[in-house]
């Protein structure tokens, strides 16, 4: 077992002289970068899509509903491959940027549904009371509805971040070297399966549990402030 760990993680694994653990760390960096910026893009798209879907005008609702329906109805790996090899092929976009766009588009559709559900969960009586006191529709949403909705949707948003983190494992389909792809490269060069794959699994496990712990602490602080 010690020999397998040494040959997989701490020895050069190819003609380029790359050491396994450094390849995994570089892959981890790509995974975190894509996850973080895709979540930011998804949040912006999700907020915009939410208000489009809540519009009273059908021609504003229609493109938002179409976007959410298409994204939720197709696998993320298919979206990634189509975006990189077809939609962005003529623009010479690098793999990391393409992955951020693809995962951001995917996450935006789910975040929009999370936000919409959170807003609709707030008692309509509060909206009516705020409007009767003279608050505008925008001010009611900003000051009354959204603060309560954010508390309602925080667990779901945290879960979406964790799902997004794990979904980035398919970046290898477009040739990107993320955490999972780094493990596959080590496995193919050393013919050692267990060490690189379990190493990647443990890193994913550590990341998801760490984020879950931080989120739970944040939720407790929000509850204390009620």
From TrEMBL:
Membrane topology: Multi-pass membrane protein
Membrane-traversing stretches: 30-52, 64-87, 195-215
Listed GO CC annotations: ATP-binding cassette (ABC) transporter complex
CDD domains per the UniProt record, alphabetical: TM_PBP2 (cd06261)
Matches recorded under InterPro entries: AA_ABC_transptr_permease_3TM, ArtM/GltK/GlnP/TcyL/YhdX-like, MetI-like, MetI-like_sf
Keywords: Amino-acid transport, Cell membrane, Membrane, Transmembrane, Transmembrane helix, Transport
Subcellular location: Cell inner membrane; Cell membrane
Domain of life from the UniProt record: Bacteria
Pfam families: BPD_transp_1 (PF00528)
Record-linked PROSITE patterns: ABC_TM1
GO molecular function: transmembrane transporter activity
One example of a Gene Ontology biological process annotation: amino acid transport
Signal peptide: none
Domain ABC transmembrane type-1: 28-215
NCBIfam families according to UniProt: HEQRo_perm_3TM
Family, similarity comment: Belongs to the binding-protein-dependent transport system permease family. HisMQ subfamily.
Role of this protein: Part of the binding-protein-dependent transport system for glutamine; probably responsible for the translocation of the substrate across the membrane.
Protein name as it appears in the record: Putative glutamine transport system permease protein GlnP
